Structures are given as structure tokens and as C-alpha cells.
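User: Please run a holo structure prediction.
Assistant: Happy to. Please share the sequence and the ligand.
User: Here you go; the ligand is pyridoxal-5'-phosphate.
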Amino acid sequence: MRAGRDPSAVSLVAVTKTVAAASIREAVDAGVRLLGESRVQEARDKIAVLAGELPDTVSWHMIGRLQSNKAKLAVQLFDMIQSVDSLDLAERIDRYASEAGKVQRILVQVKLHGGETRTGVTPERLAALLEGIGRLNSVAVEGLMTIPPLLETAEDVRPYFRRLREIRDRAEAEGFRLPVLSMGMSGDFEVAVEEGSTMVRVGTAIFGRRDYG
Ligand SMILES: *Cc1c(COP(=O)(O)O)cnc(C)c1O
């Protein structure tokens, strides 16, 4: 591998938003085990359609912004919620997970650029959030996720990936355990892996262009 990293150290989340069930089935037949969705309702419908058809080893990841009124359903549907960015949301997830007798695996989404209404906690507030989440019994933080700004080239995005890794390293030095770094999409996953990604989220490069029509 170009980055000189062990391929088994990087997992692939196939992003299936807008993708039809038949194509998801094909991807799973080809060996994909992690599926990423960004809308709770869309995921619910797909999971219902595919119920009983996918191996038990398939897991679904929530990668989009999670509204707090959808937290309960998200806990029912997803093995991993990658987009937690507030203690309020984490506490809700904790409550529903506790009721369901589940420990919900999550990532904390970090916002590395201003503008827009991007989900994510700022680096300055990360430690306080991790500390708060650490007190919850039914939520397990496994790492960090980020969505960099849309830029021209993958090289332009590299500093954002590097930054998330540095933030993770600093948090680990402070005692938090954050083995997962979810970063890299179709246009930039190679650069993300070079910068330490352990989980890439790839849609278009697997399924082709999305049709939102
Ligand atoms: C859609 C999406 C992806 C996949 O994007 P591609 O460019 O199609 O690979 C990855 N992460 C998130 C959070 C997304 O919403």
C-alpha cells in the first residue's frame, strides 16, 4: 500500500445513501461489511427491505447529522453513530441505549472549519465533551470523525486529516482512548489513509454518482 500501512488497519464503510437495495446486496456479496447512511428514515426503510438477506456480520453506521428526536430510532438501527457532537445528544443516546439494554458505539464528530452549519464539536471543546460522555454507562466512544471542507484537490484536504490525527493524539495523551479515526471519502481516502485514517467512508467510488432525483 502506498501509505506503507497494513491494509487490515483501515476499514471501509460503504456509503449507501440513495443507493438501491439491490446494489447494497451486491456490495455485501463482494465482501463489504460496514454500511453508512446519513438519514435515519432512509436507513430504516432500507434495513427493513434487506432484513434477513444480509449476513449478521454486516453493521450499519450513521454518518449524517442526527437530530435529537431521531436518537431513539438511531439507537435501534445503528451499530455505530459517527456524528455525535454534543453532550445533550450523547445523553439522549445513552438513555435510549440503556432502555434497549445496549451499549451504543459512537464516534465524536469534530468540526475543523467554520462556515456552513456543519455538525461537529470544535477542537477546543472536545476534551470537555469526551469527559462528559465518559460518565455515561451505555455509550462507548471509539474515536473521532471529521468531514473536511469541499476543496479542489485531495492535497488541499490533507491538513485537515493531519489536524484530526493530532487532536486525537493529544486527547489520547490526556488519557482518552480513541483508536478509530473516521476520515476520507471517495476523492481523498488515499491521502486520509496516509494521514492515519483507520476508517474511510466511500460512496461514489463504489456505487457511482448518486441520483438524488
Ligand atoms: C456521502 C458521504 C460520504 C461519501 O461521499 P463520497 O464522496 O460519495 O465517497 C462520506 N461521509 C459522509 C459523512 C457522507 O455524507
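The chain has a mean pLDDT of 95.
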